[in-house]
Each structure stands twice: as structure tokens, then as C-alpha cells.
Amino acid sequence: MAKHVAVLMGGWSAERQVSLASGKACADALEAEGYRVTRIDVGRDLAARLAEVRPDVVFNALHGPYGEDGTVQGMLEIMGLPYTHSGVLASALAMHKEKSRMVFKAAGIPIAEGKVVHRLRAAESHVLPPPYVIKPEAQGSSVGVFIVREDQEHPPQELYAEDWAYGDHVLVERYVPGKELTCAVMGDVALGVIDIVPAQGFYDYDAKYAPGGSIHILPARIKPKIYQEVQKLALRAHQALGCRGVSRADFRYDDRADGVTGLVCLEVNTQPGMTETSLVPEMAAHAGHSFGDLVRWMVEDASCNR
């Protein structure tokens, strides 16, 4: 009998639409691979839905808070349902930017200078000398991110907004010029390195998801020593956080610097985008894994009690 997989998608975070796209692509691919698939647009009744559906495995295609921060993972642990991607602790650490930075620093993974402050403090005056980046403490997909340039007299006043939806604390981090690099880890293997070139501006939400928003250069056109260092650091970050399954580490590389000194790790995504044109499937394809192969591997790798 075919293994029954429940694909979780949607939810209610700011990344709902991205999750719906990831979930549909993965569910379609799993059906093509011969699995019995139930698609669940996640709401507050998720536990009841899963108890009703009774899947063998849960494919977690959620992005953002509740789906990516250890919350859903904890519920699945209690229910004893094997699930894809990282467990409770790794998911929570990776989603919380300052906590993950502490783990990276302890593991010898380079990070940019930065500090966490209340958003109103960040709006009042420059917390770091420009240029710097302001990003929510626990969000993904570059939502709520601002780059403060050297010629900006004041920080972004949007941080004062009463309808600000991304939490009261933000990470203010030194801006690192140069290349946007990313590397996926699949199990204990670092895949290829992509150089992401936004069509305009920086790698924000639109650059990630809008058609033509960015160009992906794979393999990245960087020196072999830097390429290998990115792979090494991506795997080290994955392991330091305690990730399993698939993750993706993002880096900035100041190519004006000497050797690897210009390289810093920004974050690890434990629930990276999973459409057929997303970064992780692209890196997997470069390593010889079709999209169907990738999602099948993730289902067979699923577990709990971790």
C-alpha cells in the first residue's frame, strides 16, 4: 500500500502565499511519485485534521511563524507523526535570528556585527553607523527588511507604524556589500552554491518570488576556495543548529576583501521554498536529483523524537 503523506501548507503567517505554492508543488510531485497525498491548508484545527486524516508521514511545507519556528513541530512530536525538515529545537533556533547568531559564533561561523533592539529605538536614531540592515527578529522571506544607506539622515519611519506586524524587536546588522550567496544541505551533504543577483535593489520578497525578480548563477562564479568555504560553513551551520533533512544557508560575501574574510552567514532556513523553481530544488537538480527525487528523499528521511 502507498505511504500516506499529509502536506501542510498555507497557514496564517506573512508567508502564506509562498507556502501555498510550495505545498502545491510538493503535493503534485509526491502524487507523481506514487504516494497517497492529503493536502491540508493549515488552520487552528490542525491537530483535529491530522487525527482525522491519520497520515503515515507529514510533509511540512509551511513557512514563517508557527510552521517554521518549532511550534508545529512540537505538536507533531506529541502526536507521534514523523515529519520532514528539522525538529523542534533546530527550527526554533534557526527562526530566531539572534539565537542562531549566538550558535553560529560559538561554532566559529562568521557573522556580521549586529544587535537586537526595540523597533521604536531603531526608528528613533541610527543604532549602527550606516549602511546597515534592519530585519525582524523572527520572520522569513525578507518581509519587514530595510537597508539603511549612508546618505539616509533618519532610519525607516515605517517602524513606527501601528499596524507593524513583524514583532517588536528587530535585528540591526552591519550591511555587507558584495554577493548574495546561498547553499543547501541535504542530509549531511552540502550542495552547490548559487550567486543570487536581484534584478534591482536587494534580495527582498519580490526578488525572491516575482517572475524575473532575480538571476541565479549556479555554480556561483567565485574563487574555488570561497565556494568550498561556503559549502563547509553551510554544513557546519546545519549541524550546529541540529538541523535534519534539507536546509539552506544564506551568506553575504564582500568580494573586495582578502580571501574568506569577507564572508558572513546571515541565517539558516529550515523550511526553504519548495517550488520547482526555488533555490533548493535548483541546487538539488544541479547535483543530479530531480524534483520528484528530492521530495521522495525528504519523505523517506522524515522522523520525530528529535
UniProtKB/TrEMBL annotation:
One of its GO terms (biological process) is regulation of cell shape. It comes from the Bacteria. Binds 2 magnesium or manganese ions per subunit. One of its GO terms (cellular component) is cytoplasm. It is found in: Cytoplasm. It catalyses: 2 D-alanine + ATP = D-alanyl-D-alanine + ADP + phosphate + H(+). Its cofactor is Mg(2+); Mn(2+). It is an enzyme of class 6 (ligase). The keyword Cell inner membrane does not apply. Its EC number is 6.3.2.4. GO terms for molecular function: ATP binding; D-alanine-D-alanine ligase activity; metal ion binding. Residues 101-300 form the ATP-grasp domain. Keywords: ATP-binding, Cell shape, Cell wall biogenesis/degradation, Cytoplasm, Ligase, Magnesium, Manganese, Metal-binding, Nucleotide-binding, Peptidoglycan synthesis. Mg(2+) 1 binds at D250, E267. Pathway: Cell wall biogenesis; peptidoglycan biosynthesis. It holds the Pfam family Dala_Dala_lig_N. Mg(2+) 2 binds at E267, N269. Belongs to the D-alanine--D-alanine ligase family. Cell wall formation. This is D-alanine--D-alanine ligase. It comes from Tepidamorphus gemmatus.
